[in-house]
Amino acid sequence: MTLISRIALVNVVLSVIVLGLKYLAFMLTGSVALYSDALESIVNVGTSFAAMLALRVSARPADAAHPYGYAKAEYFSAVLVGVMIVVAAISILREVYFGWLNPQPFDAAPLGLAVNAGAGVINAVWSAVLIRTGRKVRSPALMADGRHLLTDVISSVGVLAGVILAALTGFKQLDLILAGLVAINILWSGWKVLKESVAGLMDQAVPEETLKRIRGQIAAEAIGAIEAHDVRTRQAGRVIFVDFHLVVPGEMSVSEAHAICDRIEEALRREVEDIFVNIHVEPEVKAKHAGIPVL
């Protein structure tokens, strides 16, 4: 089992545990705010399953039907995360509305608050693991799940403090106000996840820092060529695609030009993991004198 597969499996298990803890906290207190916290954890369970499935699909090797692989499957998982976040926020706002019309008492039981705090600690540690691993392996699904969990942690801290304050002051409506704020925060989180996922589906270019590394390797390894121009990149999940035109002297043989291409491709694979390179060789009359000069 790969690292990503293990992370995805643990993610599912922990999301179920956290859901159970947060629902128990709600049952012990009757707080609508804690209910909203538990409802968001239901989303976490669903999205963790979706992420696990998407990661399995994205790991499949390229075949005749999908010659560029299945890496984009992770973006569909991230889109699903965003949609489910929005649905959860709407459900919470519904509970706030009916709770405001028909207020219900709640009990800030210390045990319930402690259970909710424990669930928050688990989420805080695990969100850091997901984000760090997602960045390392360039996985949109893991990063989307990690960022959502981080948002959940922040809202949980606010909810917990607010419930305690509501119990101490007797201002019961504060419980509902906090639940509404959680819903708004969740909506913002869902919008960011959807925005990033759609950018990936639209073949967004790699980050500027990665592009600089790619251009630097091309300039350093294209010795014998004249220039490289029209460098284009796109990212599909953890896979990066690069294509560009390499201008060589007109008298250069095919085998010599091919050797330069091999050297560039090998250097790029050492510099960037999971990269596919496509080079179009052109004679010097095609030089634009505006691309990457060879060092």
UniProtKB/TrEMBL annotation:
Higher taxonomy:
Bacteria, Pseudomonadati, Pseudomonadota, Alphaproteobacteria, Hyphomicrobiales
Q: Which UniProt keywords apply?
A: Membrane, Transmembrane, Transmembrane helix, Transport
Domain named Cation efflux protein transmembrane is located at 9-202
Q: Where is the protein situated, by its record's location annotation?
A: Membrane
Q: Which PANTHER family match?
A: MITOCHONDRIAL METAL TRANSPORTER 1-RELATED (PTHR43840)
To which protein family does this belong? Belongs to the cation diffusion facilitator (CDF) transporter (TC 2.A.4) family.
Outline the extent of the Cation efflux protein cytoplasmic domain: 207-284
Alphabetized SUPFAM superfamilies for the sequence: Cation efflux protein cytoplasmic domain-like, Cation efflux protein transmembrane domain-like
**Main localisation, per the record?**
membrane
Keyword check for DNA-binding: no
Keyword Transmembrane helix in the entry? The reply is yes
Q: How does it sit in the membrane?
A: Multi-pass membrane protein
Alphabetized Pfam families for the sequence: Cation_efflux (PF01545), ZT_dimer (PF16916)
> Which sequence ranges are marked TM in the entry?
7-26, 32-55, 75-93, 113-131, 152-171
InterPro entries according to UniProt: Cation_efflux (IPR002524), Cation_efflux_CTD (IPR027470), Cation_efflux_CTD_sf (IPR036837), Cation_efflux_TM (IPR058533), Cation_efflux_TMD_sf (IPR027469), CDF_Transporter (IPR050291)
Report the protein name in the record: Cation diffusion facilitator family transporter
